[in-house]
Design a protein that fits this description.
191 residues; Trna Endonuclease, Chain: A, domain 1; 2 domains; six-stranded mixed beta sheet; 3 helices; 21% helix; globular; disordered C terminus
Length: 191
């Protein structure tokens, strides 16, 4: 599911989750996919959260490396952004953008935080199993684009190996416990 579309005339980023009744405000076809440029339609109902979809259930065929998101992953982005704004003073003046394409490395950041002085940091939520090689490759891509990154590990990604990699790479590890909606900061782990 895609929650961000670009207005076809103005290229303004439209976050469909910000509208209580998006079908009353956004017309299908008014937005295009930010990755491939194809027209998007609005999907909203009683079962699924409102989102954009490519016409004819066609998938996005862009060159960007992104992965399907579970409902938990999408909810975690909202919870995490709120947590950062409420608990870290430096984040109070920052702009938070979701699902941001990073063209130079063909990646899509879960949350890209832009600070007034120009510093950018991607907050990546990883719930599915992932190897430390893939974590390193994605981290390297963000660094190539001039973006710092914080990995938030949860569910299958929250392994001792991945935690140890985070501590070795960044000096800390952060995790998400989605069952309770709490976040725990892990300052040190055995190396």
């Amino acid at each position: 599911m895609t929650f961000i579309g670009l207005h076809k005339d103005t290229s303004e980023r439209i976050d469909i989750t910000q509208f209580e009744h998006p079908r009353l405000i956004i017309k299908s076809g008014d937005c295009v996919c930010q990755l491939c440029g194809s027209p998007l339609m609005v999907r909203a109902g009683n079962v699924y959260r409102a989102h954009f979809s490519h016409y004819g259930e066609r998938e996005c065929h862009s060159e960007f490396r992104s992965h399907p998101e579970s409902p938990e992953h999408r909810e975690a982005k909202t919870i995490l952004a709120q947590f950062l704004k409420e608990n870290y003073l430096e984040y109070s003046s920052a702009r938070f953008d979701y699902e941001v394409p990073i063209p130079e490395v063909r990646r899509v950041a879960d949350i890209l935080v832009n600070f007034p002085m120009g510093w950018r940091i991607a907050h990546e939520i990883q719930l599915a199993g992932i190897s430390i090689e893939e974590l390193q490759a994605r981290t390297d891509d963000y660094y190539k684009a001039g973006i710092d990154v914080v990995w938030w590990l949860g569910k299958s990604a929250d392994t001792l190996t991945n935690r140890a990699w985070c501590v070795q790479t960044f000096g800390y590890c952060v995790t998400l416990n989605l069952r309770t909606g709490n976040h725990d900061r892990i300052k040190t782990l055995p190396r």
